[in-house]
Amino acid sequence: MSKSSDGELNPAGRIDELREIIRHHSRLYYEQDSPEILDADFDAMFRELAALEDEHPDLITPDSPTQSVGGSATITFSSVEHRVPMMSLDNAFTPDEVTAWGGRLQRRIDELGASAESVGLVAELKIDGLAVSIRYENGALVQAATRGDGRVGEDVTANVKTITGIPHRLPKGSPEVLEVRGEVYMSISAFEELNAAQIEAGEKTYVNPRNTAAGSLRQKDAAVTASRNLSFWSYQLGEVVGGPELTDHHQIFEFLGGMGFPVNPEVAVLHGLNDVDAHLLQWQKHRHDLDYEIDGVVLKVDALSLQRELGFTSRAPRWAIAYKFPPEERTTKLIDIQVSIGRTGRATPFAQLEPVFVGGSTVEFATLHNQDQVAAKDVRPGDTVVVRKAGDVIPEVVGPVLGDRPKGLRKWKFPTNCPVCGHTLVRPEDEAVHRCLNLSCPARVAGAIEHFASRGAMDIEGLGEQRVQLFCELGLLSDVADIYSLDSERLKGLDKFADVSVQKLLDAIDGSKTKPLANLLVGLNIRHLGGAGSVALAEHFGHLDRIEAASEAEIAGVEGLGSIIAASVHQWFADPTNRIVIEKLRAAGVNLQGPEASGLPQTLEGLIVVVTGTLDGFTRDEAEAAIKGRGGKSPGSVSKKTTAVVIGAGPGASKVTKAEELGVPILDESGFLELLETGTLPSSVRTQGDS
Hints:
- The protein is of the alpha+beta class.
- Among the domains are: 11-67, Helix Hairpins, CATH 1.10.287.610; 91-324, DNA ligase/mRNA capping enzyme (D-amino Acid Aminotransferase, Chain A, domain 1, 2-Layer Sandwich); 329-435, CATH 2.40.50.140; 609-678, 3-Layer(aba) Sandwich (Rossmann fold).
- The chain is 35% helix and 18% strand.
- It has 24 helices and 21 strands.
- The strands form 5 sheets. Strands 12, 13, 14, 15, 16, 17 and 18 form a 7-stranded antiparallel sheet that branches. Strands 2-11-10-3-9 form a 5-stranded mixed sheet.
- Strand 17 and strand 18 form a beta hairpin.
- The longest helix is centred in the N-terminal third of the chain and has 21 residues, at 11-31.
- Residues 1-8, 70-75 and 686-691 have low confidence and may be disordered.
């Protein structure tokens, strides 16, 4: 905090300092779509300013950022004055702050003579995009504007008209004047496609969907905006003349949908404050199930009359609050860029970072994917970088903070030799990655053994990365088959390796011998062959020997396998070194036999059934086995080809939404049992459009 001349803390000086910094970063965010700091850092400064002003109300000024809506009005496009101001929302950053807001809300409602328990709330996902207002007169789209400072925004009419889903004309009987408000955003899939095109063209990639959407909307050439595949969710009304009499906020969504506007399917009506915590937790957990980015949940009082009575502060409505999820991006120092070698020889650059707490854990290392990504992001050792960790996703470096880059910092160059064995790294013409082609590279050998013992393969508990590395260094393991000849006496002689631990490991190794053939195929580390392909091979050929003897064409003929996988499988089994490994596995008594025919009636032959949520009579694996045993398929995603989606308790929201969008029949557990038995859908199933 700023200090006075006698060394005492100076609140007035710190308040002035914070206001200047916040205004600077607001201009970068709202006007130039090029923020220099993360949202979490901006929010922290804003909250510090608000807290200081609460302690010193005599220092509050009308032009303070805490008293205004957002960024200042911009002048890139012509100005538009909003007839009804576009207000900001107050933020809550913890569930306790939401509870405190609920307490204030309840007290105000009690003062108004209503009961909080009887007041419903509408929960909306907080879309990470750009707020706009779209005005219609006599059914025709006449103007679209950004929020700006809440009073004056920019005219972006021509660009908004390029966005798919926004109607240019409304149905007959629409209001004389209708102002629709919502969020322009870029879907994650559209963002990834755009960046892939940038990489292919040798251009710099974009940092995140939100800033890319904002920059795309403010292009001077509407054709550029049209090429960016922007999307829109509607969520509020501004000025309305001649519209229907609505009593509740949730009716606004029904009205907007009836007018042809996109309405987010995850809007929910909560029956009071008691339902809030569970709803916030659900979306904080499932935020990455969606194809668009959200950074929180917005809560609004449902009754419009109560909204009017509760009113506004100088910058935000009292009847609404935005709960912001914990930040998944932080800045830290990039100490070094190193390269790791994986089980297939893939050379992956990764960042060594100053430890930073992000996404619920402390991160010291983050992926940089490949040479092209490092070049496109232009991150250099010594940079301050943005690190992102979304849920269980591996942490990654998003990009540098260019304003903090030291002068003279040199670009990083990809190494020409493997950092483990010294062999030359090769980048095949059709790939984006470099590889070490030395099959004896210690990193490749250890990685392949770790993969063989992993849960998705032979699931050998107690044989993790550290033990594999140790056993390889001691010469106990040179390939995956050596696992089954580990010497118990040698293991017991190792430091910090108790007899009990040795026996547990040996028992786990012995137990893995009976794993299904598909697990063994996964564990063999055959390039391009994953879990689904391994199951298909095992079921089709029934024994490892028949796979080994099959021609490339025969393998390619297995449903679900293509020419690339077939070529890779055939080449693997043709390698004499791999044949030696197979013989060692056979001698050790590892199961090479595939599944026998189920003997069940093939009622689901040709059908595709997706299962989501928890069923009472089946585990997830049992449900999928029941489908496949009857000749059906059970993939992990919903498509137009899906026959039905079976829903249990706690289903994945994205799968349910996709099924409803595509009109795919939705079954409960009893309907699932009927489908298994008869092979036909029950006479009454819920599909899109049903009430």
